[in-house]
Amino acid sequence: MTSTTEPLTKTDRRSALARADRPFRGIALIIVSTVFLGCSDTMAKYLSLTLPSVQIAWIRFLVFALIFLPAMLTTTPNIFRSVRPGIQLCRGITLLSSSLFFIIGLRYLPIAEASQRLSQFPADYLGITERGRLQPGAWADCVRLDRSLTLTAVMVEGEDIDFKNA
Known about the structure:
This protein is mostly helical. It has 2 domains: 25-109, no CATH class; 112-166, no CATH class. It is built from 5 helices and 3 strands, in the order αααααβββ. It has helices at residues 10-18, 23-47, 53-74, 85-107, 111-126, and strands spanning 142-145, 151-156, 159-161. The protein has a 3-stranded antiparallel sheet with strand order 1-2-3, with no helix packed on it. The longest helix has 25 residues, at 23-47. It starts with 9 loop residues before the first helix and ends in a 5-residue tail after the last strand.
């Protein structure tokens, strides 16, 4: 058996160029997505005090859909057609369930443990031992909140910051 390779069409070449390695763009997008996810989870924590979990999940879905809308409108429609729509439906249901359970769980999680999950766990995953925790030898980046969750102090790298006049 011999295999023959057909010449690439113009669309195939453009698609291959779009997938070319761009490590800095990839790193930047991962950092932005991590920050966005952390902000989204923090907002869900505060919203869970006043809104039902289902409503928070729908708000998250709508915000993510609005963010993704420009990408959907600027690409060809065939890119979103699935070969296996049943698997995509299961994936969507799993993602929705994951969001609902996460938001419901945040309601029962103390604020200190929630902030640890948003700071120490990502730092540990990335192998950054001097960030994400309050311990001797680590950089002390933290905020202090009162019982009504009003910001009362900010510390960056161990130094108090005058955030009220910033």
